[in-house]
Structures are given as C-alpha cells and as structure tokens.
Amino acid sequence: MEEIQYSAQSREHILSLISRCTNILTLPHIVHQILEVTSGKKSSASDLTPLIESDPALTARILSVANSSYLGFTKKVSTISHAVVVLGFQEIQNLALSMSVIQLFNRRGSDFTEKLWRHSFSVAVGSRMLASYLNLKTDGKYFVGGLLHDVGKIFLCQYLPEKFSEMLTLLDRQDFRITYHALEERFFGIAHAEVGGRLLESWMFPRDIIDAVAWHHEPHRALSDPALAACVHLADILCTIRGMSPLGDRYFLPMDKKILPLMYDLKESFGTEGLIALMGQLDLEIDRQNALLSAFRW
Predict the structure, then answer these.
(1) Gap between the Cα atoms of 123 and 175, Å rounded
(2) Is 29 within the bounds of a domain?
(3) Structural domain for 219, as ranges
(4) What is the pTM of this model?
C-alpha cells in the first residue's frame, strides 16, 4: 500500500477553511434572535411566538415536528404559541438550530451525501430510542445530536470534493485495508468529528450537543453530557451494523468500552441482548418517523 501524504490538506489548512467558511455558512438572523430569547431568564412564550411566526418556512417545519409521531401528542398542535408551550424553549432552540444548519448545505448533493443524510437521520432516530432504553428523558437533544453527528463529514465532502472523492476511491480498492477514520485523518489531518464540533461551536449550539458531535466516536471524553454522546455513539454503530451507512459495515469503529460503567449506572441490565433487540426495532421506528425527515430537509 502506498504512503499517503497530502501536506496541502494539513490540519492547519482545514482549520483555515472552516474559519473562512463559517463566515459564509452563517445562520439566519432569526435563529440568533431565537437563541437570545431562549437564553433569557425573563423570556416567555409570548416573546418567542412572534419571532417564529415571522418566518413561514420555520413555522411550517416546527408545526410539522410538533404534529409528528416523533413527539406523540394526542391533540393537534395548530399554532406556534401552542407548539412553544408543549415543546419548551430548549426543544424549539434545538429544532431551529438543526433545521437551519441542514439548509446551509448543498441541497443537491452527491449520491454519497444523500446516503450520509439518510444515515444521519437513522442515527437520530436510534439515539432517541437508546435514550428511552436507558431510561433517560427523551428530549430533542438526542435526535438533534444524532442528526448532526456527521456534519463534519458533509463539510469535507462538499468543500473538498475532489480530495474526498479520491479518498472514497481508495477505500473501495480491494487491496486497501484501512478504516475510513484512519484514512480521513491521513488525508485531511483532522477527523470529521472535530470538524463538526468546531462548526457547531461557531453556530452557538448548546455545549452538550457540540460535545456529542465532537466526541461521537469517543463519548467518554464528552464532559458536558456523556450519556448523550454515548447514545449517539451507540446509535451510529447499530445503524452501521444494520447496513444504514454509505460506507458499509467494514468501516465502523468498535464501541468505546470506557462508557460501560456509565451504561451500567443508567441501566443495570445493559448488554448485547438489549442492543440486538433495539437493532431489530430500528427499521420499524425509522419507517414510522420517515415523515419527520421532510421537516428538516427542503
């Protein structure tokens, strides 16, 4: 196997590219206004409702989520004021942020990009399932963390398309025995997880979601909410094993065993049998939540 050296695509080059692109990949002004309101201690639903209503597209997406089987409300949510009350400030903030991020990237991506978004949606659903399995409060951060966990990979694919394509070509070679993650670091000098974390930090995401994305392959290193990072990590592995990945199952990393003490603290019976059972339910849950995907995409 030939030695791979791409000094032009060094870590410093990628970090510079991220810095330049975040000046272009800016979130809409309304999202910053929502962040300001939701972080205010004296803010109320009456402060947030008119902001969201001023953006018809965001209004439609949030109402779509509020009325989806994802949340399971028995009564129809027909107004934003009702949605703000039943969802809460944090959920609204996470939805507005994640929807806006997805809109920033190329809507007509490559076949690989489309498969990657599909994988990300599957991981989002799986993360929420794992949170429920571990008896955690299943709020929106699990879905959002899963949905955006590979946003760094999307960034590399769309902003360095030739190098990314070259890397994928090497992966497909029969004589090339190296994992995606090892090759990515040798190509770009940085892992997609760190790229994603830096992007989310520039967009002022909550720290727990930033950490979940930045450490989704090493969740024990997530300081703010290791349980969230662990759910995204395990969902990523389950979806890849299940074949819900653009790279195939020979390119995934093993489970981070350093999270096992936390898993046993959360659920004493945590083990392989429970994860296999969850994997069997994953297809059905993804199909059930499929309509939700349209709320996040275009």
Answers:
(1) 30
(2) yes
(3) 7-296
(4) 0.86
